[in-house]
Amino acid sequence: AQSVTQLDSQVPVFEEAPVELRCNYSSSVSVYLFWYVQYPNQGLQLLLKYLSGSTLVKGINGFEAEFNKSQTSFHLRKPSVHISDTAEYFCAVRTPGYSTLTFGKGTMLLVSP
Amino acid sequence: NAGVTQTPKFQVLKTGQSMTLQCAQDMNHNSMYWYRQDPGMGLRLIYYSASEGTTDKGEVPNGYNVSRLNKREFSLRLESAAPSQTSVYFCASSQQEKSSTDTQYFGPGTRLTVL
């Protein structure tokens, strides 16, 4: 069994400030890792994913995430946020050989002027 | 391409009523999924279909049934709705089940309220 923990339910930040959204996972086997974003009243959109190779993954809209196997983490970062980044962010894992995703409970990023 | 479409967008039911949520994808994907999203709970998998003609239970299947009508369409049925099924329902699809590069694409959701 695998699980995903997103430690912060809400992260308030001012525009142009850096942000880090934390994600830790638990699994007895290697996993693939994903970050999705959900803008208000919309479906989920893939931000980035880690399958293998370089542990630093770059995604859309200036976001990046770093896979840390020893700490079982996949934290999402952006050096300078915009008001338009206000959304809910979900971390998810998938076990190789299986199709289903396990999601964290989400982190609401609130960007204010 | 429309991607993944869901109907209806909103629905209000009374306890005990039945309804079917429709989902269709035009990306020629093999696998399709139904999730529910509840505040503070993230997304939880209800059922999925790895390929046309197959369906499997997810984490929270009780009270639901599914039908993979063809490769494009995957419906979710509530036979006797309960207030606990008030939620936002998302359909998703992906190209190849179990492929290392497989990515799920999501529809816009159906917001269901059961009174």
Distance between the termini of chain B: 36 Å
Going by helix content, strand content and strand pairing, the class of chain A is mainly beta
**Most extensive interface:** A-B, 26 and 27 residues
Total beta-strand segments of chain B? 11
**Helix and strand pattern of chain B:** EEEEEEEEEEE
The major β-sheet of chain A equals: 6 strands, mixed
Helix content of chain A: under 10%
* Average pLDDT metric of chain A: 93
Q: What is the number of helices of chain B? A: 0
β-sheet strand percentage of chain B: over 45%
Helix content of chain B: under 10%
Series of secondary-structure elements of chain A, N-terminal to C-terminal: EEEEEEEEEEEE
Oligomer: heterodimer
Reported for the largest beta sheet of chain B, the result is:
7 strands, mixed
The number of helical runs of chain A is: 0
Q: How many E-type strands of chain A?
A: 12
Nearest-angstrom radius of gyration of chain B?
A: 13 Å
Shape of chain B: globular
Low-confidence stretches of chain A at least 5 residues in length (pLDDT < 50)?
none
Structural class of chain B: mainly beta
Radius of gyration of chain A: 13 Å
